[in-house]
Amino acid sequence: MSPEATYLYLTTIGRGSGRPRQIEIWFTRHAGRYYLVAEHGLKAHWVQNLLTEPAVRARIGRRSFRGRARVVDGRSERELVATIRERSEAKYGWGAGLVVEVAPGRRLAAPAC
Prior knowledge:
alpha+beta, single chain, 7 strands, seven-stranded antiparallel β-sheet
């Protein structure tokens, strides 16, 4: 089994511009979904973008997919937040911040070489 990729490339739609905005970010996977941790919480532009438009695109290695993103509610989903922070800490040595979930939808074609 190959090691898990380090980065997820998340594309949100700019809340003001309407243009695609891509970031490179650490991620973990749990129960078929992808989780990101926003160091700057709700102040992060990519988080503000997905709050306005939760439809996102993501790429991990050569796999690309559409998905829906949401901020995980730290009050009502404490166990999930703790699990994701632990997984991020184990993978990267850091896990503090706002937890965001990306639920995969339709898979996109692989980019041509």
